[in-house]
Specification:
Eight copies of one chain form a homooctamer.
Chain A (H helix, E strand, L loop, with lengths): L1 H13 L4 E4 L5 H13 L4 E4 L3 H6 L2 H5 L2 E3 L4 E3 L11 E5 L5 H13 L6 E2 L7 H5 L2 H5 L3 E6 L5 H8 L4 E5 L11 H9 L5 E3 L5 H12 L6
Parallel strand pairs in A: 1-2, 5-6, 5-7, 7-8, 8-9
Antiparallel strand pairs in A: 2-4, 3-4
Helix pairs in contact in A: 5-10
Chain lengths: 219, 219, 219, 219, 219, 219, 219, 219
């Protein structure tokens, strides 16, 4: 059984994702071992939540095979494709949500997509969103990152036809500390077409967006 | 000390509220005793959360001194003033929020205010809110009732100058069951000028609105 | 401004959804008014969470324009299209999750999609899922409904290439009462490509699935 | 549509608030960019939750245009008005609540209001509150900051005619850690006329107080 | 070991409590068996949370040995002592808290104490409490029952020297539903000398009050 | 009124507590001001949660009037009485609960009571508790500190006649992190006579114990 | 792959459990279909949480193949083995926990084990537990059911060598309503050797006990 | 009584566990005292959650009697047995769960068991688990450690006959932060035979596994 299952699994992986490693909570030794193993197997690797502090403690050999971006806190061991696909866009409610937007953008680039970021269009000043609406409507899939009360998700989904992948962010204090108020807003939205990923999960939103884009390639 | 404190207290009450009774959780005998006591003291009385079922079990004498409204689930023992003041308006996100809006309106009428209800302007269809905006901007104080994800509070407060009293309603299911998602949204809003009362507390929102209107009479 | 906004809004609605009404928490009079208004405007209408008990209390006129399904607790005022599109499938973990699956299927049919239900493939008996895998892999978008611990979401997303829309259901007791354990599992999944809607939100999952299918029509 | 909406939005802003920036969670580079942009546009700017540690890491140019107060953790880029309006007062339950009171007072001063602080009048020693009552009754709007069990909100609102804006503070430990016990008390109060803002939200309380004071200027 | 432990246990029980039975969640057959067993052993028995509905389904034999009070929902199988001790008093914030006060009073009477109830002295109208203060100060131990935001506990403990046993009640809605807001207030109080029992636990408060009164008899 | 209320308040304070200051969350300047004020008024002062780190940052003048104990994290500005009363005892479940026990003991000493600590008698090894039982039974009031699952409260209260003041401690991890599991156990106990204070509130437990001891002096 | 996986799965099932159906939340039609399918396949079937009310609505044919027990709310379609194995015992803290104990006992009997129930040995009266200890020590695996504060789990595990499977029950009110206090106690216990199943999960505890007994048969 | 109880307790301990000390939250002085006491009594001692930072602050004498392992954060004062028993295995979902697995393995070794670790077999890539299944099926008791959504518990228990002791780990972020999502999954599993210990409680899982292995030695 195992051999057959293995074959089947390989088939699944062809339409799936390269290896990605969530670095938060892993030791330096664990991260080094994962990078070395991937390098030996010549498999592209994406690392997320890799802080500068942890990166600087990795061995020079491991550092040398990784390209790290500070604004997205990601690193990858492969050269991104020279031509990137379009169709996915990222929208953020506030300045503080941008690290999550960059994590999503870095994941998308790693997978071959260039995703513009339309930043700081939270709905307390509705004008900011309305003035960028035509631009947002060009996207076939929209990732929206918002903390605080997360009202952006409902308003945005009511204004565009594309599916909205809501990423609640852990921006806020009091009742919105840790992102649970924004998460509840995203799940409880009365606007049809909003789907939700975990708090601060820019990587997961990007992965879902790519799976959606691939729908059209499904035979 | 007690006599002096009593005098002081009476002075406070002059600028305060007539007696109001939250009937949910009180027995028929308790409600009857309260109504009879107020009637004897010739004090106007407002009863909230008085269901038809409980009302029908009150004694005929008590029923006869009360005028009950089914849509607001309130009753009062006094004839409302013939001329009502304006300045306060009520906005609701959905059809299901109207009972709470009616509780607020009945409280306001009992206290001498006529408050129009602008219903069903939730932000998933932003057009509904924008088309009623001029009307809403006439109000000096706005009570907003919304359940589900409560995105109305932030959007509304960003569009009008008046203070917004948010009443989260217990409309919803899953993460929004019991109104906690809407409550979190109201408290976590990034729009300045939103203040919040307890879930489903139409009475409290009306009392706060009146206290705000009285600011201008403060000497 | 309003006229222009209105035009823009109409454009948005063309690519959007017909009216849908969540009946739970609405009074008989409110539901009747909504149906009559939609009938007069000749707009198709979908009603969800419409129990037999509430339906039976609607006026004969309103009942006569509605076709109600007991297993999905939905009703609609329009004849479903004679030809239905394929591409969306529904997977459930247990027998108790089927009402939510039927709500999703009824919404999809109302919108022009025929969605097969692959029922009772929860992962405690992994064989049940594996034996239906080829069938599930034909779907371009998969809606997965699961209660209890919601382990199905992670396992399923690891085995197929299509995006998985997780609908946690309120099936369970103790820590899983009300669906919060399944919701947490869906959001916390380590499998990329899972997106989540509110607990028991079969309608929302269907709406999101349609938005995803329309990605390919985006110009 | 956009041009018209923009005009409308400008009209809204005239009666609204200057830009305010919540610095917690923003990077030094983000704060610098916001200050520089506001300086170029000659717009007054209020920064809240700006710690000394972060302030000291801002560029000398940016530091030079900001006046920072340590007790309120705020900074502003504009000279406060020479004549300040009265009418708003701030009351605190304990010594530990004063930072929040100062944040509110700094926001009010930035907006043109001088707000006295009546500190340390928590109700466990009722005498402290009663002895300051005449002073508190002069205010037309009262902001009350309290942590722990937040009993001050109910007692205060029962003693004065002005609206009470409750700011629960994150002062406490055990069940009152993070301010949730005080928040619940504020929302659950049986005293009519209490409205609530998010935990530690001194800025929001000040903004709401100003909106209330403006009611009397509403035409 | 067992024999010795048994002797020791008997000694403990002499200073302890007669048997008490919490009837909620027990079947009619279980309650009947407990009453019959106690009757045979000639042990006095107190039953709490015994609704009229359940009582009416007990066998006539069992009913005949029980004296049930509707307002306290308790029943006992023994004649209360003819002379009752004083020293314990009960204070309630609102009318709705009286059932819990009666449960405490019935427990105290069963144990030989007459406890007056000072009802409806919630702090939103501080005058009500102040006017009864001399009466309350006569008690050596005070049981205080309050729901909603539970501000009574702090204010009361600040005004009297006796220990205050706080019984949060499940009176309230929204954030105070089920008594958790009042429970948090009781635990988080800044007034020294407040101790707390479970929500609605009038029996437990009475038991603790008696244990406190017995301190003075301790040799 | 104020003068009379003031007199009444002084009377209350005679039977009440000296000033106590919870230092956590207060600035060095605030603590210094409080100590200086008390010193000038020649009032004894107890400071709790005063870490060595904060103490070392106080001015030499303030440090010189305080006697600080590291194990209890308390300090006081008065010489403790030379003769201390007995009657109160402290019991702890584990080694980690001792800091809370010392806070209670220091408070008691400040108020004139010597309270022995019976440490490390948690019920997982029941023998440890049983072997100290005779000693514990000498106390007229027992303070019990326990974290983790807090089973000690129920077992202890079943074995002794004295009232048990449960202090849940924030010792534990996973579900018992922050003391909420122990708090729930204390409140939900099926043993009559247990009363509860906030998590880690050794001071409050001591204050309540003293109020109980004073019952016997009540005239 | 599927055929091989199927074979492997069959092997797993040989050492596993017959089909069990959790009836709560399933419709009458669903339960009937499951019973009929099992009957046709001649597979033994256990139904749990089958109330008398639901049972009475099943078709006479389905009723006729089921033997239902009211005290355990279970039914089975097979004759229990004539000889039952011993080694597993069930201990309960209170009378109210017995329905869960009976569910466990019925499951065990269905699987071939006779499990005695040692009832009502909660630790508030430690004597009750100590006097039954010799009996309990005969069991090789102990299932313990307790609600309220769940102190039984820790005390019991400290007194016996066998593994303790804790079943928190939903018996209680206030903080212990729904069994979460007992669940926390079970998980947070400081006694080694306690393992936990979901609240009220008598079936799961029985299944785990059997898996433990089978350890000794493992080759 | 005490002497007899003591004897009985010694008998219990023979089948029980050596002393284990949870070091987190204990001071250096407390840990030193415990080690010295055990050394004097010549009792083997296991210390868990002993960080390198705390270990380095212990006195040289105490350090010298302890063998500490960094990967398990444990130390012991005794030489492990030269021959170790088999039968228990440990399975982890991800790399980040290994510290907990090592804590369990170190505890088992201290008690005489050698437990292999099958790491990184989380179900998002089902192949990883299936390919190790034969190995896992050799274990008579399986400890499974998983964070995030904890889907491993259900899938694993459905594939093997041995009891599964689930250790939810505090690996994750957003809704899975602190391990509560994994804990809920473990408790809510629909796979029979899963039992659960506290979050990150590798020690407790090991203790339970040993108690299960001893079932076969029970006379």
């Amino acid at each position: 059984m195992i051999a057959e299952f293995q074959l089947d699994w390989q088939r699944t992986k062809r339409t799936s994702f390269p290896e990605a490693v969530f670095c938060s909570g892993k030791s330096v030794a664990q991260i080094e071992a994962i990078v070395q193993s991937a390098t030996e197997r010549q498999m592209p690797l994406l690392l997320t939540r890799l802080t500068q502090e942890v990166f600087s403690r990795l061995s020079p050999e491991v550092q040398s095979v990784l390209a790290r971006s500070d604004r997205s806190q990601t690193a990858s061991s492969s050269v991104p494709p020279t031509t990137l696909q379009s169709g996915i866009g990222i929208v953020t409610a506030g300045t503080s949500d941008t690290p999550i937007a960059y994590e999503a953008a870095a994941t998308l680039e790693f997978m071959g997509y260039a995703a513009p970021i339309v930043a700081d269009v939270g709905v307390a000043g509705l004008w900011r969103l309305v003035s960028r609406l035509e631009e947002i409507r060009q996207f076939r899939v929209v990732i929206a990152a918002a903390g605080m009360e997360g009202a952006l998700f409902s308003v945005l989904a009511g204004l565009i036809a594309a599916p909205v992948i809501a990423v609640p962010t852990s921006i806020g204090y009091g009742v919105s500390a840790n992102g649970h108020a924004a998460l509840s807003s995203a799940l409880a939205t009365c606007a049809p077409g909003v789907v939700v990923v975990n708090i601060d999960n820019g990587f997961g939103a990007a992965a879902a967006a790519i799976k959606m884009m691939r729908i059209c390639q499904h035979s």
